[in-house]
Amino acid sequence: MELRYTMSKRRKSGHGWFSSFVVCFIALTELISNVRSLKDLKIFVPEAVIMGNAATLSCQFELEKASLYSVRWYFESEEFYRYVPKESPPARTFPVSGITVDGTQSDATSVTLRGVTRDLTGQFQCEVSEDAPLFHTDIRHARMQVVELPKEDPQMQLDKTHITTLDSFRSVCTVGTSFPAANITWYINSKRIHRTPYQRITYRSYEGTPTFSSLEMLPHSQVLQDIYQSMPPFHTSLTVMCEISILHIYTKSVQQRILVSDLVTTISPNLLGLDGSNNRRKNNGDPDNSPLTGAARGPVVPALLMLLLPSLWTYATPLLDRCRLPMGRVSGV
Fold first, then answer.
1. Which of 95, 192, 207, 266 yields a CA-CA distance of 20 to 30 A from 123?
2. 0.85 cut: is pTM over it?
3. Alpha-carbon distance 226 to 301, whole Å?
């Protein structure tokens, strides 16, 4: 009986100890969850900033019931700024090559860098720690690109300024040295040009040298065919444009025009008598009842001359100038 009583007592004691442990564990977990209040840590770093400008980096967070212990900023694992509220002064900077902190514009949630250089292209990191008892720490990081803009405006050259629909042409676009290298995109009459066997695009860029791109358009290009089909007759033009961009902070463009003419496609076969209408008129009169065929044969030659006159005048003018006689001799005749 005594042995049974002793074992029963031990069991009750063991159950009591386990229950107390569970209660304490739950209470401690609840306490930790209440104390650990650092959350919603977010970092804001400019994706791109122009070389020589200032850049403000921001670290936003919520502490609720906890107190802030420190905020630390790193560039590529090197600490350059620390903010500890309990210290005096709370802000402290550390020497890192290329970094100049503007102390008047920096605090617990942000740090401002003056006169950024290309060397500051890289990874920035914000580390926030809450105060005792847990000193919970959270980290966020983001990349920043420092952009060196080209000092010269883009330039474009065309190998031809006047073509027909059967001609090819080539254009070259260059832009000054930049970091990173500029992107060059081609357009013709607002249609973007992509590389194909009939739309040949080259691109060349080396660090420390201008960026270069060329465009060669062959007459069988689908873009040109679509444009030509929608063109009005006689003379019209193509607008060739190259657009230069560097990330989202720099965009410029340059464009030139090419005159396009194709007389072959604007002369009706009826005007040239190539459709066999003469034979039909002899037997059946004027089958299409057109004033340019049949009995109205008289206006054919004048109409054809009016079509050809602009081009004939263009090529004949230099010859006339060379053959022009002095006014005195004309008077004598």
1. 207
2. no
3. 33
* pLDDT tens-digit series, residues 149-166: 999 999 999 999 999 999
SS (H, E, C) the chain: CHHHHHHHHHHHHHHHHHHHHHHHHHHHHHHHHHHCCCEEEEEECCCEEECCCCEEEEEEEECCCCCEEEEEEEECCEEEEEECCCCCCCEEECCCCCCCECHHHCCCCEEEECCCCHHHCEEEEEEEEECCCCCCEEEEEEEEEEEECCCCCCEEEECCCEECCCCCEEEEEEECCCECCCEEEEEECCEECCCECCEEEEEECCCCCCEEEEEEECCCCHHHHHHHHCCCCCCEEEEEEEEEEECCCEEEEEEEEEEECCHHHHCCHHHHCCCCHHHHHHHHCCCCCCCCCCCCCCCHHHHHHHHHHHHHHHHHHHHHHHHCCCHHHHHHC
d(CA 139, CA 141): 7
Q: Is the previous residue joined to 197 through a cis bond, with omega within 30 degrees of 0?
A: no
